[in-house]
Amino acid sequence: MQFSVFGPFTVCVLSECLVQGHFLIPPWSLFAFDSLSPPLSLSLSLLEEMRELREQPIDPQAEQEIIDSIEEVYFSNDSFDMVQHELQKLPPELNLQELEEYRDKLKRQQAAVSKKVADLILEKQPAYVKELERVTALQTNLQLAAVICTNARRQLSVAKEGFTEASLGLLANQRRRQLLTGLLKSLRTIKTLQRTDVRLSEMLEEEDYPGAIQLCLECQKAASTFKHYSCISELNSKLQDTLEQIEEQLDVALSKTCKHFDVSHYTKVQLAYTLLGKTQTAMDQLHMHFTQAIHNTVFQVVLGYVELCAGNADTKFQKMQYKDLCTHITLDSYIPCLTDLCKALWEVMLSYHRTMQWHEEHDKEETAPPPAGSEEDNFVSRETIRSKKKSDYNLNKTNAPILTNTTLNVIRLVGKYMQMMNILKPIAFDVIHCVSQLFDYYLYAVYTFFGRNDLYESSGLGLISSRLRTTLNRIQESLIDMISPTPTPTPDHHQNEKVPSPHLSQLVVLTNSGTLYGLAQRVVATESLVFLAEQFESLQSHLDTMMPAAKKPFLQQFYSQTVSTASELRKPIYWIVAAKAIDYEQMLLMMAGVKWDIREIMSQHNVYVDVLLKEFEQFNKRLGDVSRHVRIPLPVSNVLWEHCIRLANRTLVEGYANVKKCSNEGRALMQLDFQQFLMKLEKLTDLRPIPDKEFVETYIKAYYLTENDMEQFIKNHREYSMKQLANLVNVCLGSHINKKARQKLLAAIDDIDRPKR
């Protein structure tokens, strides 16, 4: 084996690679003459030659000395040209003997390097073979893994297609099943609804009115659920007719209790009305039935005796009025007739007494705690009571208007007058004029009883508008006789007569603080008047058609100046309650005792704030007590709270205006007090925004104004009194401005106040 092409350096470098385990290139390629890979037989022959070289005996120390004698240049890089290097070393004159000696030296070096390389190659041969086997095994495993992955992907694709189609099919079938199940349930419900008529008839025959109403209401609810089916539309209207029929039979059953009261029968009737949510209607109908029962009973008794006494006289007694019929009773039949009349009335009164007793007992049951028993039973009973209370509240407390007998009588008279106008159209204007006087007198009476007070002007709240004041003055001048206690006819009898000023009954007490100064009576009177005005509003178009064209301005003036002012009476009437319900004077006295010229920022508000809030809590409690007897409508509640809050805020400003000395820390304390008041007040009322909140905040902030800003403030804020503005000048700017500037600001205040005088 020849290594003439390789220098010692190249062989050593390659051998070092083998020593470090670099087997990326087969060992036999180290001795190739080009980049082409030799056949496997060549590599085997190379290995044989290396083995022979390795087996040649040589001294290791001598071998190492030979390798160390190799020039360093042979170890430089792969581009080193060994032939050119050796040729350049030749002397100018060649000596054959020296050349042969040098050649032998190079051969020894080459042989030593070759043997060293052979030793290293043979030493690493087992690792190479093992690594080659591992690479071959790895290649085989990779080919097998590729086949497995290919098959797995193919099987996964097949499974995915099969599973998705099956799943979608299952979902579709499940959805179809749910739809069909729902449809079947709907069809069964519709079938049950179609058969309801028979059951309702049976329940009405059994006088099971609550059960019939409950069934009918449930059927109506179910019918509304399935109203998208065409077969349900007729059923829904039929159920409504059935419900109306039940109400008619219920009214007949209610009338039977007026003469023969039966506890179980009346309980069923009342429960039925409760289910309908018409307990108040039941009471109204019951009163009407008792009235009718009394009339029919006494009429039949008297009619029987009159016909018996008359004999064969052809007198149509049945068409007579009861009063006229009584005149035909003879002296002989008077005592027997009166006896029978008392017996008949006693039966009616007995039924009425038992009816009242039934209601009193049931009222006690509703307020009493549930009796000991099973928890379940104590629970359809609590729910039944709760449902009754809810029904009664919705009807009586929320929807029903607040009325007096006077309002009902006026409405009844207006109805009769309108019938008169339809028949006698030429006197339509005169009738409407009288109706307007009736309303005027009613409005004036309510104001006189509950709204007249001399403190309106001093409050500065504008409680009575100029329109309302004009209306009241007009009514007083044209309709009210302020001198004579009895009506005084005028010389012209065709003109309207003046009537005496109305007087409040002594039974009505408006000075008791426990009843909030007659708040219940004020609410009933005022809200019934407002209700009457609303009824007149609804009649305006009808009355307008009856009025002659020349008289229509009178009707328009009546509505614009009188009817529309009825709701404005709320402010002055309820202001009296608000002015007395809170002790504002006590708050002023407590504020006067507060020291405002402090030198430290306070973190605790003053005691007068807590006292004022306590007053509001008491007011809220008493308002709730009154509402248990008479419903307090939301507009009334809002007006009351608005008045109380406005008066409290204006009292705060008045208290701050009484301050003689105030520091910056004192002004901060004022803000702290007011913020504490607002925070606690908002928890007591839902009224938003808080009335006159800016009135107080603006006044407190005015303490920080300069002289020029104060002058502009005085001109822009005329809602404050002269005293309040003067206090700002004296306390706020007193120590910061000279006497001339102070006099100028006070003169500006006086100029603003002069027009008010």
Task: Explain how this protein is built.
With 757 residues, the chain is mainly α. Among the domains are: 246-364, no CATH class; 405-481 and 505-567, no CATH class; 582-701, no CATH class; 705-756, no CATH class. The protein contains 29 helices and two strands. The chain has helices at residues 8-19, 40-55, 60-68, 82-88, 96-194, 196-205, 209-225, 230-256, 263-276, 279-310, 322-326, 331-367, 375-378, 382-399, 405-423, 428-450, 456-459, 466-479, 519-546, 552-561, 570-581, 584-592, 607-627, 634-657, 664-681, 693-701, 707-716, 722-732, 739-753; strands at residues 480-481, 499-500. A two-stranded parallel ribbon has the order 1-2. The N and C termini lie far apart (141 Å). The relative contact order is 0.03. Mean pLDDT is 80; it is low at 1-43, 370-379 and 381-397.
Give me some keywords for this one:
71% helix, mainly alpha, disordered N terminus
Overall structural class, as computed from helix and strand content, comes to mainly alpha
The biggest beta sheet reads: 2 strands, parallel
> How are the strands of the biggest sheet laid out side by side?
1-2
- Overall geometric form: elongated
Instruction: Please report the total strand number as a whole number.
Output: 2
Distance linking N and C termini:
141 Å
Instruction: Round the Cα radius of gyration to an integer and report it.
Output: 57 Å
| Percent in strands | under 5%
Number of helices: 29
The share of residues in helices is over 70%
> Mean pLDDT across all residues, rounded?
80
Low-confidence stretches: 1-43, 370-379, 381-397
GO cellular component, one term: cytosol
GO molecular function: SNARE binding
InterPro entries: Syndetin_C, VPS50, VPS54_N
Coiled coil: 229-256
